[in-house]
Specification:
There is one protein chain. By secondary structure, the protein is mainly alpha-helical. The chain has one domain: Arc Repressor Mutant, subunit A (Orthogonal Bundle). The chain has 3 helices and 2 strands. The protein has a two-stranded antiparallel ribbon. Helix 1 crosses helix 3. The longest helix has 17 residues. The radius of gyration is 13 Å and the shape is globular. The N and C termini lie far apart (about 35 Å). The relative contact order is 0.18.
């Protein structure tokens, strides 16, 4: 499913987006973090599919998994 996410320097300054849109992964994450359900996200962005939202969450999970975590003091 990874092909649903695109990173193009010419679109949204290279931030990860849902392919074919200007909807950034961070926007979807922010909505979920703010209490939105997947259904709410789909209502806000009717051009997305459930699979797009799930892939955005999976993409973020994989990115975090690859990052070096610095413990908070």
């Amino acid at each position: 499913m990874e092909d649903r996410i695109s990173v193009d320097p010419g679109v949204c300054s290279g931030k990860p987006c849902i392919r074919g849109t200007r909807i950034m992964v961070k926007n979807i994450l922010g909505m979920i973090a703010g209490g939105y359900t997947i259904e709410n996200v789909l209502g806000a962005y009717p051009e997305l599919t459930r699979e797009d939202v799930v892939e955005a969450l999976d993409y973020a999970s994989r990115v975090i998994d690859e990052e070096r975590v610095i413990p908070r003091a």
